From TrEMBL:
Pfam families: FAD_binding_8, Ferric_reduct, NAD_binding_6
Membrane topology classification: Multi-pass membrane protein
Membrane spanning residue stretches: 40-64, 85-106, 137-160, 172-191
Function comment: NADPH oxidase that catalyzes predominantly the reduction of oxygen to H2O2. Can also catalyze to a smaller extent, the reduction of oxygen to superoxide. May function as an oxygen sensor regulating the KCNK3/TASK-1 potassium channel and HIF1A activity. May regulate insulin signaling cascade. May play a role in apoptosis, bone resorption and lipolysaccharide-mediated activation of NFKB. May produce superoxide in the nucleus and play a role in regulating gene expression upon cell stimulation.
Key words, A-Z: Cell junction, Cell membrane, Cytoplasm, Disulfide bond, Endoplasmic reticulum, Glycoprotein, Membrane, NADP, Nucleus, Oxidoreductase, Transmembrane, Transmembrane helix
CC annotations in GO: endoplasmic reticulum membrane; focal adhesion; NADPH oxidase complex; nucleus; perinuclear region of cytoplasm
UniProt protein name: NADPH oxidase 4
Gene behind the chain: Nox4
Species for this entry: Nyctibius bracteatus
């Protein structure tokens, strides 16, 4: 709502500037409201094209998120909404681009129909009626041609960004979204045409003034048109020794021309708006390329049940915090395409290994799995470094920040995972397994919902080790584990001595979220509980609603979320 209000306020202010501004009087006489609407929508586009790139500066966001002196908890929670802000700016660009194009189509028609014989410098058409010919619609080549191409590029980017296309074919979304660089280059050229001009010599030639070199009839026409637009405007005192027709004298003030009007094109303001963020984004991409140009060492590859692949790696000077993610790029899978994956294991002072779990659900992950595993149905492949087979080159870009970094900074945290959405919390659990005393967190509620029983085996060993460690340290209440199986097929498979600690925490069905929140609020009166969710939108919406609800125990829930989409 705030962003919508800001854009509408900017649109209205710019609209009034061009509607009432004296320097645009003659241009406004030719183009009418098309001038005001086109320039007002352009100002909104400038703002959004400037800011839409900033949420994609991942290194900058990770730096701000990890700097305690720069970012407070509220600031970091705002950074969590960077993706939402990026989408909002993109939608705003689409809406006001349609308005901008429509206004300029009207301007093109008015340039032709209202061809100005007196001030030829204002004209974009070469003669009256030029735009009536279809071949001359783009009479001004640079702005017109670049505008048409930008509309086509924006259309491809918008349609390919829809949820249906992202889910069905992520490659289309990825490749079309990278057309943004073409869009920005065309935008830089688009604003350099200088079609719209403003008057520079208002003192020598006030709009609607008396010109001694013109006939009375011509002057009266100019005066009448001016007074309809600016009824209260007066300029300089009337000199008594100069004979001027009575209509040009009002309240002992007059409008008189000493020179012909001069017109000049605006300096492209868009350059000021987008040059900074565009340069920042390019510098960051260059930095990321240099940082990730050395391939990592793949130490092991493990094939888990339900089409989940675990890759463990090592890289010199790689440091990461629990909850962060990296971007994997394998040239043998795709020369240009790369994908983000949450770290499930972070490097520590004692071990340099880090890892990710990825679910095989698309073309890229299928090809990646086939390259890493000799046989796709092989359960496990863990080889010592000196015996390991030749894995394809794999490059890692990152790490980058995410909302789950804050899970260790609350005294009480509620972590809810749906299926493979458990990956951000796996790195948190691994960190607690090493040492939990150095963090602010003193109680963790861990809720994991899966459709099949085999999915729990991804991190069953980790959960059991953490449970046993806390029992040995006399802190069994530090973590509350609840596993929910939404489908009951094959429930007998989890029975076994190895996972006995998890069997007692396995529940059938779905969590009763309202009762769960009431229980947490009752046990943590007048405390702030961090709520973290990574899973389907249906679950996240329920948790978001419950987090915003009040309770009788004075407990405050702060909601954080990461979505698959």
């Amino acid at each position: 709502f705030f962003w919508l209000s800001l854009n509408l306020w900017l649109f209205w202010k710019t609209f009034l500037l061009y509607y009432k501004g004296l320097e645009y009087y003659y241009l406004h006489q030719m183009l009418g409201l098309g001038l005001c609407v086109s320039r007002a929508s352009a100002s909104v586009l400038n703002l959004n094209c400037c800011l839409v790139l900033l949420p994609m500066c991942r290194v900058l966001l990770a730096f701000l998120r990890g700097t305690q002196k720069v970012a407070s908890r509220k600031t970091r929670r705002l950074l969590d909404k960077s993706k939402t802000f990026h989408v909002t700016c993109g939608v705003t660009i689409c809406i006001f681009s349609v308005l901008h194009v429509a206004a300029h189509l009207v301007n093109a028609l008015n340039f032709s129909e209202n061809y100005n014989e007196d001030f030829l410098a204002l004209n974009a058409a070469n003669y009256r009626g030029e735009v009536s010919q279809l071949s001359n619609i783009l009479s001004v080549l640079v702005p017109g041609l670049t505008g048409v191409i930008m509309v086509l590029v924006l259309f491809l980017m918008c349609t390919a960004s829809t949820y249906a296309i992202r889910v069905s074919n992520y490659d289309i979304f990825w490749y079309t979204h990278n057309l943004f660089f073409v869009f920005y280059m065309l935008l830089m050229l688009h604003v350099s045409g200088g079609v719209l001009k403003y008057q520079t010599n208002l003192e020598e030639h006030p709009p609607g003034c008396f010109n001694p070199n013109k006939t009375l009839r011509e002057n009266m026409t100019v005066l009448k048109a001016f007074e309809e637009t600016f009824p209260d405007y007066t300029t300089e005192p009337f000199p008594e020794d100069l004979p001027v027709p009575e209509p040009f004298v009002q309240n002992n003030f007059m409008r008189i021309c000493s020179k012909e009007p001069k017109f000049q094109s605006h300096f492209p303001e868009t350059w000021f708006w987008i040059s900074g963020p565009l340069c920042l984004y390019c510098v960051e991409r260059l930095y990321r390329y240099i940082r990730s140009n050395k391939p990592v060492t793949v130490t092991s590859v493990i094939s888990h049940p339900s089409n989940v692949l675990e890759v463990r790696m090592m890289k010199d000077d790689f440091k990461a915090r629990p909850g962060q993610y990296v971007i994997l790029h394998c040239p043998r899978v795709s020369a240009l395409e790369s994908h983000p994956f949450t770290l499930t294991m972070c490097p520590t002072d004692t071990k340099a290994t880090f890892g990710v779990h990825l679910k095989v659900v698309g073309d890229w992950t299928e090809r990646f799995r086939d390259l890493l595993l000799l046989h796709s149905n092989q359960d496990t492949e863990i080889l010592p470094i000196f015996q390991q087979r030749r894995y394809p080159k794999l490059y890692v870009d990152g790490p980058f920040g995410s909302p789950f970094e804050e899970s260790l900074n609350y005294e009480v945290s509620l972590c809810v995972a749906g299926g493979i959405g458990v990956t951000p919390f796996a790195s948190v659990l691994n960190t607690l397994l090493d040492d939990w005393k150095c963090y602010k967190l003193r109680r963790l509620y861990f809720i994991w919902v899966c459709r099949d029983i085999e999915s729990f085996r991804w991190f069953a060993d980790l959960l059991c080790m953490l449970h046993n460690k806390l029992w040995q340290e006399n802190r069994p209440d530090y973590i509350n584990i609840q596993l929910y199986l939404s489908q009951t097929d094959g429930i007998q498979k989890i029975i076994g001595e190895k996972y006995q600690a998890l069997n007692s925490r396995l529940l059938i069905g779905r969590p009763r979220w309202k009762l769960l929140f009431d229980e947490i609020a009752k046990c943590n009166r007048r405390k702030t509980v961090g709520v973290f969710c990574c899973g389907p939108n249906k679950i996240s919406k329920i948790l978001h609603k419950l987090s915003n609800s009040s309770n009788s125990y004075g407990t405050r829930f702060e909601y954080n979320k990461e979505s698959f989409s």
